[in-house]
Amino acid sequence: MKIPFVDLKCDLKEIKLKYLQRVEEILDNTSFVEGKYNKKFEDRFSKLHDCTNCITLSSGTAGNHLALQSLGVGIGDEVILPVNTFIASAWGITLCGATPIFIDVKPDTFNINPNLIEEKITSKTKAIVVVHLFGLPAEMDKIKKIANKYDIAIVEDAAQAHLAEFKGKKVGSFGDVSSFSFYPSKNLGAFGEGGAITSNNSNLSNKIRRIKNQGSESKYIHSEFGNNYRMSHLIAASLDLRLDYLEKWTNSRINLAKLYSDRLINLKGLEIQKYSSDFKHVYHLFVIQIEKRDLLQDFLNKKGISTGIHYPIPLHLQVPFKNHLFLSKHFSVANKLANRTLSLPMYPNLKVEEVTYICDCIEEFLTKNL
In sequence order, which residues have a C-beta less than 8 Å from that of residue 149 and are 6 or more positions away? Predict the structure, then answer.
């Protein structure tokens, strides 16, 4: 049996004809750079995440940058974020000229540890970037309490967490500004690169619309420093079509994760993410921890099962941040996760029998290697 790590073809047969019709329409109208499908998608996506504003962008990384730029983050400022995340979470900070301040994560959720945030706050701290890693929301009540105490902005990096919830509230609606990614492999993936920002702050949202469009509200009139972070109309057209399937796909991921969990949770020598009923995990990834991770990955590969590692090098050990004098001893959990985590296949059209086969292979490995 051959099982890929990701399968991007789950809805292509259903929507290919509809998308090609939209492509033809866009070509005929020559409306290549933004258009009606951007607006349509923005309206629908904002409602799904309980927000009044959504701004489509060229990528999730662009969203990370614009979120902080709109808050006035710049040279000399510090921004707190978890050390165990994709590097684009940090690029938003460095692109503003600010300094990232890394925080270790919790061993059960893999998300930022709220108990470690306060000690890192200084007079230079401008914002906290909260990553909802793998689709599991962070503990937003504790983080918001700290942010409010020190009058610090919150930016949600929800790149992997479309439709996730904490205590019944959607991610993307907690922060001052929130960033989403629509990279093709995400829970809601575009036919190319794409991202968006959500916010319930209209002033910030209007500012972001200007910045993403060369700092302009009207042609050749520029009110502030800007960039070109606009989303292609063709990308927006694909996202608007695929949005019809997001809730269905999310439910499929949750059901598949339950199958994995039921089989794996009690296996000796293996751990999975742990969280309470306060959290709605949408499983961009299903990640396990195991001591002999590399051996297991090789074993599964020989069985025809592709896997991933998220992430093999924590941010404090990445080359761009080595001169920031981050001491590895301060990130013991992230260091451990980098050596122990393995991401199993997870996508909406993964079959029950495929999950069963994967779990059988993992059990076989543990039997032979414990």
Answer: none
Q: How far apart are the C-alpha atoms of 214 and 132, rounded to whole Å?
A: 30
- Per-residue pLDDT, averaged over 32-38, amounts to 97
pLDDT for 326 beyond 70: no
User: Is residue 9 very low, low, confident or very high in pLDDT (cuts 50, 70, 90)?
Assistant: confident
Nearest C-alpha neighbor of 212 from the set 199, 225, 194: 225
- pTM value is 0.97
> How far is the first Cα of the chain from the last one, in angstroms, to the nearest whole number?
25
Handedness of CA 69, 75, 76, 81 (dihedral sign): positive
What domains can you pick out in the chain, each with its CATH number? 12-245 (3.40.640.10), 246-369 (3.90.1150.10)
For the chain, the residue count is 370
Distance (Å, whole) CA 61 – CA 182 = 10
Q: Each residue of 279-314: b (16+ CB within 10 Å) or e?
A: bbbbbbbbbbbbebbeebbebbeebebebbbbbeeb
Q: Residue 325 — very low, low, confident or very high, per pLDDT cuts 50/70/90?
A: low
Query: What local confidence, expressed as pLDDT, does residue 323 receive?
Result: 73
Grouping H, G, I as helix, E, B as strand and the rest as coil, residue 49 is: coil
